[in-house]
Every structure is written in structure tokens, then in C-alpha cells.
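Action item from last meeting closed. Structure (421 res):
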């Protein structure tokens, strides 16, 4: 030991030199070596313990029961789940499975009932290949992130966005058609339909019809339109796209009523059927044609007995409320009547009436162009006014109105993992 060390500890080392050791070029006492060795073992033991603790923390999630992990995951946003796929091979397989996607879809659908959200579409003003998708939550605090996608083939001429089907949209234009899931960024181009091939690139708005995106046992596109130029090809033509066959096919039995064409009157789907307005008949009334997506048969629905103004029939609109078809009708005194189709589909029932002139709606836009988008909690309704570009929430109980956005390209929406259809 050095003199300084001896002075510090109040003793002098008298052990022979042969019992001393060399440590990093310094003479060290044997007991000191035992102390150093013991401290090394202690430190190494602490490191091993910390390493074991970190390993335990890293593997903690996978030690949870599978059903608990799944119950947590089905409540998470799609963007978070996509990130989780890279953290664990087991998680990746679970999240990619079809059964998990279906469970996540069911949970998102139930959440939508009281916390509805929309998808706002923003096509690029510069190029025809880019579209921004902006989810917008009407109520609740669930975070939603927007997505910008580039579509190589672009969208020329007119463009139409279908209703959401399990978080998927069908984007149609005069010369291209694509199915997309904005949440997962997946999309797939489809072959052109006969309607797109035969029609010119640019059509007047009153001649445009669009395909309905629906799901029976499998997903389908149903495109009903007026035959052209005229019969003997039949009054209407219907094409159905099968995703498994990746091909369009024509139906032989189609309605003998011409379809009302309008860029704002897209077909509506509810309760396993697709619905279209017909052109005015001899009594200046518009009828409704239904198509069963399972049997692929058409039928004419019963008439609605209301005091609507025949001059305002062109401004009737459809929506889906609680998976039932509803029609908004403007009466001769400008009231807004909501008629719902009964589950038996043999009769209509009036469920709401809005006294238009006594509400702030009359200050925002003209009476003829208001269209229902969605309804929730049995008392709140989202209305769109395509001409003024306003989206408003109307309270059916209090009659109050709240403007939430100035945008017309919107659809009810919820996220899903469904892709690769």
C-alpha cells in the first residue's frame, strides 16, 4: 500500500510482497483484490438484473392473454395498428388476419353510431392524379389523420365518389375507376365499364349516373343507367362488377323506367338493396326502383303519399338512417318531410318534418337543395347544401343550426383494415 492510502485508513500494510498483486501496473493488496472482484460481481449482477428486467418489460405485452391483446387492438386507430405490425411478428400476423380486420370493422362501425365522422375529398387543383382524404369527426375526440394519395392513371372528365362500404370508396371518372382504402393507403384499379367506354369524356351533369358500391357475400359494383342511344337495347342497362372474376357482366332483366340522372343524386344502399330515383312519370311524380344485391332482382317501391310540390320533385334526395332508406321531400309550403321505408318495404312512414321558413336553414341556402347526409342520437342531422357548399348540423328537437364546414364532397365514413379485395 502507498503511504497516502495507509494514512487515510490509519494502518500500515505489512503483508509480504509475494502476497501482493499487480493491477494495471499498480501494486494491490490481496484483500483489495477480493473487494474489487466482489464489486465487479455486484455490478455485473446489477447489469444482469437490469438486462433481465428490460427483457421482461419488452416481452410483457406478448405475455398477456391473446383475447386481451385483441380487445385492446380492435379499439385502436388503423394508423397505430399499421405501426404495431413492425414491432412483433406475432402482432403482424394478428393484425393482417381477415378475422381481426372483421372484428376491428365491427367495433369501428359501432363507434360510428354515436361518434359519426365524415370523409372530405379534396382533388388537387393542379393535377388529376392526386386526391387528399380528410376524415372529419362530428363528435368525440378520436384522432383522425388525413392522407394524400397519388393515382397514376388520374381521373379525367367527371368524377364521382361512392358511399363508403366498410371503409372503402369507389372513385369513378369518365375514363378510370378505382377502389381505395384511405386509412391503409391501398387501392386497386378496375377494368372500365361499358358505360365509361361508350360515353364521351365530358357529359352534362344531368346525364351522369354512378355505380353503387355494396357488399353481399362479396363486394359488388352495381351500375344502372339509361340505355343509349335508345331501345331496342332496352330502356335501362345494368352492369355488375365481380371482384373475384375482375370483370363486368350485364344483367338481362332491367327496369323499364328511365333513371333520373344527376351528379348529386347518387344511388343509395340500405338493408341489402340499392335504390335509384326514376325520371318523372305522366303524373309528374318520381318513383323509386330497388335492386336486391343478393337475388339481383329489380322491383318498384310503393309511392309516397305526400303534399309535395310537383315542381320540386327534382330536388328530392335519399339518405340512409339506421340502415333504412329515407327520402327528403319538399312540400308546397316549403316544409321538409322525411319519409322512411318500413322494413316490409310495402309502405312509407313520415318520421320528421322541418318547418323550413322558421329555421335558420332558410338564411343559409335556398329551400330546394338541402340534402341529408347522416343522422345520429335520434336528434342530430347533418345536412349538405351543394349550391352554397355548406355543411350544417341541424338539431331536430331544438331547431338550432350549426355550420361546421364549407365543403360539398363528403360521405359518412369510418376507418377499417379491409384491403386487397
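Sequence:
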Amino acid at each position: 500500500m502507498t503511504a497516502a492510502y495507509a494514512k487515510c485508513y490509519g494502518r500500515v500494510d505489512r503483508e509480504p510482497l509475494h502476497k501482493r498483486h499487480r493491477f494495471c501496473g499498480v501494486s494491490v493488496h490481496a484483500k483489495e483484490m477480493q473487494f474489487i472482484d466482489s464489486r465487479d460481481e455486484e455490478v455485473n449482477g446489477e447489469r444482469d438484473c437490469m438486462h433481465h428486467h428490460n427483457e421482461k418489460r419488452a416481452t410483457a405485452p406478448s405475455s398477456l392473454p391473446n383475447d386481451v391483446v385483441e380487445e385492446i387492438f380492435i379499439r385502436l386507430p388503423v394508423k397505430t395498428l399499421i405501426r404495431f405490425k413492425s414491432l412483433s411478428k406475432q402482432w403482424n400476423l394478428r393484425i393482417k388476419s381477415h378475422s381481426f380486420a372483421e372484428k376491428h370493422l365491427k367495433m369501428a362501425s359501432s363507434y360510428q353510431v354515436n361518434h359519426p365522422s365524415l370523409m372530405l375529398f379534396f382533388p388537387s387543383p393542379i393535377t388529376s392524379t392526386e386526391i387528399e382524404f380528410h376524415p372529419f369527426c362530428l363528435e368525440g375526440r378520436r384522432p383522425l389523420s388525413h392522407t394524400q394519395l397519388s393515382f397514376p392513371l388520374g381521373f379525367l372528365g367527371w368524377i364521382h365518389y361512392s358511399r363508403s362500404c366498410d371503409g372503402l370508396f369507389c372513385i369513378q371518372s369518365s375514363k378510370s375507376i378505382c377502389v381505395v382504402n384511405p386509412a391503409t393507403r391501398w387501392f386497386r384499379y378496375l377494368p372500365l365499364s361499358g358505360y365509361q367506354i361508350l360515353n364521351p369524356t365530358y357529359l352534362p351533369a344531368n346525364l351522369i349516373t354512378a355505380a353503387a358500391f355494396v357488399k353481399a357475400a362479396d363486394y359488388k359494383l352495381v351500375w344502372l343507367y339509361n340505355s343509349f342511344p335508345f331501345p331496342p337495347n332496352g330502356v335501362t342497362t345494368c352492369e355488375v362488377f365481380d371482384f373475384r372474376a375482375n370483370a363486368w357482366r350485364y344483367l338481362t332483366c332491367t327496369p323499364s323506367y328511365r333513371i333520373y340522372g344527376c351528379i348529386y343524386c347518387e344511388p343509395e344502399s340500405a338493408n341489402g338493396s340499392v335504390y335509384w330515383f326514376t325520371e318523372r312519370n305522366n303524373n309528374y311524380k318520381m318513383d323509386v326502383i330497388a335492386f336486391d344485391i343478393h337475388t339481383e332482382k329489380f322491383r318498384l317501391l310503393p309511392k309516397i303519399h305526400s303534399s309535395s310540390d310537383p315542381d320540386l320533385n327534382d330536388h328530392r334526395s335519399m339518405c340512409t338512417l339506421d340502415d333504412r332508406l329515407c327520402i327528403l321531400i319538399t312540400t308546397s309550403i316549403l316544409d321538409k318531410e322525411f319519409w322512411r321505408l318500413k322494413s316490409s318495404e310495402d309502405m312509407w312512414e313520415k318520421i320528421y318534418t322541418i318547418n323550413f321558413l322558421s329555421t335558420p336553414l332558410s338564411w343559409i341556402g335556398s329551400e330546394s337543395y338541402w340534402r341529408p347526409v347522416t343522422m345520429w342520437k335520434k336528434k342530430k342531422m347533418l345536412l349538405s347544401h351543394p349550391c352554397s357548399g355548406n355543411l350544417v348540423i341541424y338539431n331536430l328537437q331544438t331547431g338550432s343550426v350549426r355550420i361546421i364546414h364549407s365543403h360539398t364532397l363528403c360521405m359518412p365514413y369510418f376507418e377499417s383494415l379491409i384491403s386487397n379485395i
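Note appended to the action item: The CA atoms of residues 134 and 146 lie 5 Å apart.
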